Each structure stands twice: as C-alpha cells, then as structure tokens.
Amino acid sequence: MDVQGKGGILGRNVTSAPLTVADNVRELRKAAGLTQEEAAESFGYSLRVWQTKEISGTLPAPLRQKEYEYLLLLAGRHPYLTLTPRK
C-alpha cells in the first residue's frame, strides 16, 4: 500500500515521547481489523506487552506518537493520510 497525503509521520520529524492514548488503542486496533496478536506482531511487541498498551494507566506507556499515527492510518482515521492499494 502507498501512503498519500501531506504531513504525518513520513513528512516531518516527530517526537518519540509516549502519548496518553490507551483508551482508544483497542478501538483503533479493532477498526484496523487486527487481533491483539496481529497488532503485537505488526508493532514488534509480545502479546502481553500489547495487551498492557490497551489498558489505561498501565506501564509501559501506551504507544509512541509514530506508532499511534500508524495505527490511525491502518484504522482509516488518520487526519492527513490514507492507504491506497498499489497498482
């Protein structure tokens, strides 16, 4: 898939500081059509670590900004970018 749009993770420097987004990490994962196992593998985490990212108030921190933007993109909810199939 190609990424189209402006700004976002591909066109600017972003901080790696964690965001407080645990409340909607699960919602976005489901919107992207991913199981917890698939999401964990896609982001390079163990299943247990991914599960903690879906629980508010737990450590480690939910997701880094780049990870959150990628999850938004997969879920079709990124404000500036969309995925389109390659031709």
Task: Provide a quick synopsis of the model.
By secondary structure, the chain is of the alpha+beta class.
Task: Please give the structural blueprint.
Blueprint: E1 2-5, H1 8-11, E2 18-19, H2 22-31, H3 36-43, H4 47-53, E3 63-64, H5 65-74, E4 81-84
Antiparallel strand pairs: 1-4, 2-3
Helix pairs in contact: 2-5, 3-4
InterPro entries: Cro/C1-type_HTH, Lambda_DNA-bd_dom_sf
GO molecular function: DNA binding
Keywords: Plasmid
Q: Can you walk through the features of this model?
A:
The protein is an alpha+beta fold and 87 residues long. The protein has a single domain, classed as 434 Repressor (Amino-terminal Domain). It has five helices and four strands, in the order E-H-E-H-H-H-E-H-E. The protein has helices at residues 8-11, 22-31, 36-43, 47-53, 65-74, and strands at 2-5, 18-19, 63-64, 81-84. A two-stranded antiparallel ribbon has the order 1-4. The radius of gyration is 13 Å and the shape is globular. The model is unreliable at 2-9 and 11-20 (pLDDT under 50).
